[in-house]
Amino acid sequence: GAIHVVPGNHDVDPTAKPEPAIARLVTSLRDGREGLDVALGDDGDRASLQKRLAPYLAFAARVAPRCAELFWMHSVEVRGLRLRLVGLNTALLASATEPDKGKLRLGKAQIAGALDKKGDDELIVVLSHHPFRGGWLADEGDADAWIRNHAHVHLFGHVKDHDSEDARSGAGGHFVRIAAGAAHKAGGEHGYSVAAIVGARDGSLSVRVWPRRW
To answer: What global pTM score does this model have?
Structure first.
């Protein structure tokens, strides 16, 4: 099947010497003195953010060509099930040298693009590296509110332990959060998760998760 990927904080090249103009832009965005959505709408600033993730984008172009963008959305149909896969980039402002907690931002442009022309019959699966809880994103309140009201499944990583949670959304429905865990965990168990969306005869859907560890 098709592979879909999103970048994480380690995808910012730690060996690349930061250009002063790019470093100033990222510092200003991390501190909230400039808006991320404004930067993404500016060709020069967007190119600067892309440059920080150049090795990741080259990797994505090889293994998952449809995901070789800063963020993406694809609608697909699998065995009669319509899926909207949404790849959000929580690593746009990640630093290779400074702590990231509370300094990262998602912005509204990524979410607006994901919601454009959303079909009522689509199962919406969101992928991101960082969770939308725990203080990693400065705007995580807005991101989590969106997820609760518009998505059905959220797959994320960064946290080292795999877990899943059935949560109630603000609209009264349910969505599922799944933490993948770390394929390599220094000093501890390594692991990942395998999941499947299963349809029942009454038309309902469920998500089954099989954690794997070694």
So the answer is: 0.87
